[in-house]
Design a protein that fits this description.
By secondary structure, this protein is mainly alpha-helical.
Length: 417
């Protein structure tokens, strides 16, 4: 079996994780969270950050013990059993495939405004170009990610300075809250979508030169993003207030325009496009590698376990993923993608926390209590997501379980699962 090449340093892994998290959250997640929690979304941000931290430590601890591609799909199989691993892998692949399409469509919405087929074709073009970058090798993926991340950080710095310097009185975090405890938790579940990028770091463990430092990469990336989201959340609330923030489809653009800095709108558009591309790039890499791991164990078609001899990347999995995402971009309405993706990823991390909870003392890096909090947090946020997201998520998981049962029933005796 051809393995992936260990070409990434710790800094490269941090960059890939930052691209995945920052692209998804800053430009899309604050508005639905504000609709659920009002100005108390900063409290929801804190809840999401606590759950994400527990999940991150579980993922890092497991990755150090099992330094191969696959993330929680592999950990669930090794520690809890095949079915646990399948549930985790299925949730990741399905949820993040939808997220890939959502990121491509977000990019197109900013660069090609309006209706018709042109935005969809632009989204397809983004998927194809970034898939080509992934197929050229993981070091090229990290290089492109660094460029996109730099653009996004400069954009957000401009937006925050403009908003905080505009003069309106700040909105107190607990004023004008909506939805009570349920609203806070639902907003936390939606904001969790923004933190889920550290999963891409774990799925790249087979390509990190020093996997024992993976925990550092995960926590550094997550810490940077928590601070960034806090600053941006304060800035958006201070300029727009919870009501306007909740109704906005482009909150950062609306905030700089409201602050009287129309000159900054094109800067934000460029940054939003770069953030979407960065998230899409990291998502394509992560889903492709989880698909590779599942195919190696027979939970997806065996052809997806192919690794390119020249570039040492999962070539068949990347091409198949790109094909599915292109179809979704062309035919689907993915307005509920954030909720659906959160459902799948929270299930994925619940399995991660359960797996870490079962690890022996010699493999532990953090207290077991953190994994207990992680499991409870994931389950709580799952059940408080919008009802439609929960219903669709349950149905999709049911389809996956039934499909695996059918595949296993058709295997010849003696063929490994």
């Amino acid at each position: 079996m051809t393995t992936l090449a260990r070409r990434l340093g710790t800094g490269d892994a941090v960059v890939v994780g930052l691209c995945a998290m920052i692209g998804a959250g800053v430009f899309s997640a604050f508005s639905p969270a504000a609709a659920a929690a009002g100005s108390a979304l900063l409290v929801s941000l804190g809840i999401a950050a606590v759950v994400a931290t527990c999940n991150a430590t579980a993922s890092a601890q497991l990755a150090e013990a099992y330094p191969t591609s696959g993330g929680t799909y592999l950990y669930g199989r090794e520690v809890l059993g095949e079915w646990w691993g399948f549930v985790a892998g299925w949730g990741f692949v399905v949820g993040k495939t939808a997220s890939c399409a959502a990121m491509a469509m977000t990019f197109a919405a900013y660069v090609v405004p309006g209706g018709g087929w042109l935005p969809r074709l632009a989204a397809v073009g983004a998927v194809l170009v970034l898939t080509a970058a992934n197929l050229r090798g993981i070091t090229r993926t990290a290089t492109v990610a660094r460029v996109l991340l730099a653009v996004v950080l400069v954009t957000l710095a401009v937006a925050v300075v403009v908003c905080l310097g505009s003069g309106p009185d700040p909105v107190h975090p607990l004023d004008d809250a909506h939805g009570g405890v349920g609203g806070l938790l639902q907003a936390a579940g939606l904001l969790f979508f923004a933190f889920a990028g550290y999963a891409r770091i774990a799925t790249l463990v087979e390509e990190v030169r020093r996997p024992e430092r993976l925990g550092r990469a995960v926590l550094v990336a997550l810490g940077i993003v928590v601070l960034l989201y806090l600053v941006v959340g304060v800035a958006l609330l201070g300029v727009l207030g919870p009501g306007r923030l909740a109704s906005s489809t482009t909150p950062v653009t609306d905030a700089v325009r409201t602050a009287g800095a129309s000159w900054a709108v094109p800067v934000v558009v460029v940054g939003a496009a770069a953030a979407s591309l960065g998230a899409l790039l990291a998502l394509l890499a992560g889903v492709g590698r989880t698909s590779l791991a599942m195919a190696r164990h027979g939970d997806l078609p065996r052809t997806l376990s192919s690794v390119s001899e020249r570039h040492r990347v999962p070539d068949h999995a990347q091409v198949a993923l790109a094909a599915v995402v292109v179809v979704l971009v062309l035919v689907a309405d993915l307005r509920g993608a954030i909720g659906f993706s959160s459902f799948g990823v929270l299930v994925y991390y619940a399995v991660a926390n359960l797996s870490a909870l079962r690890q022996p003392a010699g493999q532990r890096r953090w207290p077991r209590a953190m994994q207990v909090v992680g499991v409870v947090g994931c389950v709580t946020l799952v059940v408080t997501l919008p009802p439609v997201s929960v219903l669709v998520g349950v149905l999709v998981f049911a389809v996956g379980v039934v499909g695996r049962l059918l595949l296993r029933s058709r295997r010849r005796p003696g063929v490994p699962a």
